Amino acid sequence: MNRQSRSIVLVGMMGAGKSAVGRCLQERFGISGPAVIVTGGGIVLREQNFDLLKRLGAVVWLEADEAAPFKRASRTGDRPLLQHENPRNAFAQMLQARLPLYAKVADIRVDTSMLTGEEVTLAILTKFKTYFQR
User: Does residue 105 fall inside a structural domain?
Assistant: First the structure.
């Protein structure tokens, strides 16, 4: 991780809350704060992206149990990766394949299963501050 950049890079499955939390973080920081980079859920599928993510800043994995992000991701029905005969099964397979990759790249982990976007933001800020004090 590039501790000098002090950027926050959000990774996690679709529906984990990356976009909502990214907006909350940006509202908190404003223009003068660290950059908040929201990635697509599949960015971890290419190993060459690991180095890029680490160079950008602290990689924060928004993890969640399977049910919460699936519910969030399937609300609108416009997720191409869920356009399957059995979207729940497709989601579960994607999640299982990606879990070890998110774990490998993450500097910080926050479980978003039962938290609001604002609660996740506060958890990230607390862990982010501690992370940079090491």
Answer: yes
Domain membership flag for residue 2: no
The residues, ordered by sequence, that sit 6+ positions from 33 with a Cβ below 8 Å of its Cβ are 26
CB 44 within 8 A of CB 101: yes
Query: Which residue is it, tokens 């990766």?
Result: 81
Summarised one tens digit per residue, pLDDT across range 9-31 is: 999 999 899 999 999 999 998 87
For residue 120, give the nearest of 60, 57, 31 by alpha carbon.
60
Find, among 117, 4, 114, the residue nearest to 125 by Cα. Answer: 117
The 10s digit of each residue's pLDDT in 33-42 is: 889 999 999 9
Determine if residue 65 is left, alpha or beta; phi over 0 gives left, psi from -120 to 50 gives alpha, anything else beta: beta
Determine, yes or no, domain membership for 56: yes
Tell which residue, 97, 98, 99, 75, has the closest CA to residue 87.
75
